[in-house]
Amino acid sequence: MSLVGTRKLKDLIDRLLSEDPSGRNLTVVPIIGMGGAGKTTLAKVVYNHEMLKDHFGLKAWYCVSEAYDALRITKGLLQEIGSFDLKIDGNLNQLQVKLKECLKGKKFLIVLDDVWNENYNEWYDLRNLFVQGDMGSKIIVTTRKQDVAKTMCDQKMDLCAITLGPLPRDDSWALFKRHSLAYGEHPELEGVGKKIAATAKGCL
Fold first, then answer.
1. Residue-level pLDDT at 197
2. Which of 125, 103, 94 is CA-nearest to residue 85?
């Protein structure tokens, strides 16, 4: 896994497979890094990893993005789980009750991708939906913002968060080439592309 490195991958898998030492049912694992650092890539590889295939009874992935909306997030997670009911489409309270029922007693892995909101009260309300899960349940949060990770993680940052720094030159070039030269080989642009990638260091 060239973009993020096998050490980060192993670290994240170890955290997801381990039980919380304080006995809590739910553990939040933030992945922090600048845009293009490989946060979502790392989360996707882990989410689909063979070692976790039978470890969690339920998995869901939702991209939150900049505009925080509790109704949209709850509906999205229910759709991922396969339990969305059109009859309660616009009723946040009923949707939240339904999500709690779906998660109750299950060991789950939920990924909240690209989180920007650092409002503690809104996160606390959302987090309460997840505490019904079984021991060992995990939430991965990918974010560019340290403050978001601090808000969502109830442990010391160095114990719970995985931080991705700027990409090495070769990995930055690979990322640039994959996104900017995706439709074929362009040897005439390679020199310019490498200079751009070296300057950007993964912020593409």
1. 47
2. 94
Residue 90, both tokens: 């616009």
Check residues 6 and 104 and name the one with the higher pLDDT: 104
Q: CB within 8 A of 175, min separation 6: which ones?
A: 3, 36, 38, 167, 197, 202, 204
Q: 176 is in which domain, residue-wise?
A: 169-200
pLDDT tens per residue, range 56-84: 999 999 999 878 899 999 999 999 988 76
Angle at 93 between CA 87 and CA 99, to 5 degrees: 80
Q: What is the mean pLDDT of residues 19-29?
A: 78
Reduced to 3 states (helix: H, G, I; strand: E, B; else coil), residue 43 is helix
**Domain count of the fold of the chain:** 2
CA distance 78 to 95: 8
Residue 1 lies in a domain: no
How many Cβ atoms are within 10 Å of 54's Cβ, its own excluded? 7
